[in-house]
Amino acid sequence: MVIVGGGPGGYVAAIRSAQLGQKVVLVEKDQLGGTCLNYGCIPTKALVHSAAVLESIKTAKHFGFGVGQVDIDFDRVMSRKDEVVRRLVSGIQGLMDHNGIRVIEGEAVVGDEASLKVKNRKIDGTIHYKNLIIATGASPFILPIEGADLCEVITSKEALELEDIPESMTIIGGGIIGMEIAFIYNALGCEVSVVEYLPRILSCLDSDVSDVVRESAIEKGIHIYDGAKANSIRKTMNETMVTEIIVDEASYLISSEKVLMAVGRKSNLAALDLQALGVTLNKKASGIEVNEYMETSVKNVYAIGDITDKMQLAHVASHQGIVASEHIAGYEHPMKYDVVPSAIFTVPEVGMVGMSEACAQRQNIEVTIAKFPMMACGKAVAMNEVEGFVKLIVDASTKEILGGAIVGAHSSDLIAVLTQLVYDKVMVADAINVIYAHPTLGEGIHEALMIADERGIHFG
Ligand code: FAD
């Protein structure tokens, strides 16, 4: 078995395949851990945590602690982030060794039938395979506008590797990556402007959920320009970047030191010669076409992760890797996408899973919405983190919990509870019987369940 790409799709597939008795070779041209560990999930979350520590210090007075002038040692912020990444990447190397997986550093190129060529400084060889898993990931999409190629125009990768905190940054794209980075640099004192083409930021969320993040961003001084089209980027004589945006047909200029392009990611379709492999693309030609077992149009070739453009999330890539490995070993555990949680590390955090209210409306499903505000949760008040709510989407006739969103402190952890409820197709009346510890943020979920059953205790 050969796996190309050592991200959360590829390395997890390698481990699962080795567990199932395959002889596995993993080819990675850059770093084990892929985008997620090196340039994505982990470095952003390390920086999100640093920003949260700074925020705690800034608000310490409220809790009775006087703090003097706070110095930001940005070198240390970044070196701690690098230490976190290094530690996790070396952990993956250890897992590869432990599972007897051969990792070859180098770029894989399609060879003859059932073989790949791998080249690096030391090796120029051919690997023959019985099964191939393509896990070559995705890269930032760059808007084809004037000035997009200027060196001050950066992607999320460079934004996580800056040497100094820019005085100002214009972020083109108010999606998940753009908003997470907006909150990080805002906390560090950078003046951040977000330009979003759609009518609102985080449009993947119900509007009441994204509104909480929008209001928080504005309160913190992040400038949000939604319904705004980024038209061009120019550089002035004194090295200032000027982004022209169009709002309601009028042109406006935003000046900043850096411009971050965060308008989505496109699958690395050129990473391997898919035509030579005979692998076909999906209808939009945005990813490799796969079935529910991650098989491509070629029998012994599988594709997993961002390259399939199903859902660009690390946990989806890993799960697809397990599905593919198990299918190769003869087990049929199909991949399903209807109960995939998302965690968004803005301030406050957002967690969502299953059906949204907007999705229920689009599909004409009659639902009951139950909402519990975190300001009525004892633990949230004790923490002084009262923004947000728990929102449940419940089938109006059967009372099955179809989905939910949590916006507020630690939502990214709390969403696991809702994920289990939605996955298990639990009815509200049954879920209510579970006792939640007091005082915890999880009680917000219980209260929302009670509201869904018209017997809210602390609200509704
Ligand atoms: P990747 O992780 O991209 O790995 C692909 C690997 O293939 C790379 O290492 C590449 O070097 C290698 N490769 C490509 N071509 C070849 C070749 N020819 N030969 C050898 N090797 C090759 N997701 C979440 O779930 N949660 C988050 O909080 C989150 N935050 C993110 C933040 C940012 C800033 C970014 C950019 C992404 C974030 N993501 C997050 C998305 C997540 O990183 C991806 O969904 C995930 O990494 C996809 O995994 P993958 O294995 O498909 O591909």
Structure explained in plain terms:
By secondary structure, this protein is α/β, with parallel strands linked by helices. It has helices at residues 10-19, 34-39, 41-58, 74-98, 156-159, 176-187, 207-219, 274-277, 314-328, 357-362, 378-383, 411-423, 428-431, 443-452; strands at 2-4, 25-28, 102-105, 107-110, 115-119, 124-128, 132-134, 138-140, 153-154, 168-172, 191-196, 223-226, 228-235, 241-247, 250-256, 258-261, 265-267, 301-303, 342-344, 350-354, 367-373, 389-395, 401-407. The strands form 6 sheets. It has a 5-stranded parallel beta sheet with strand order 3-2-1-7-18, covered by helices on one side. Strands 9-16-10-11-12 form a 5-stranded parallel beta sheet. Strands 19-20-23-22-21 form a 5-stranded antiparallel beta sheet, sandwiched between helices. α3 packs parallel to α6. The protein is globular and about 65 Å long. The mean pLDDT is 97. Bound molecules: flavin-adenine dinucleotide. Flavin-adenine dinucleotide binds at residues 4-10, 27-30, 34-36, 39-41, 44, 107-108, 135-138, 156, 177, 268, 271-272, 305-307, 312-315, 317.
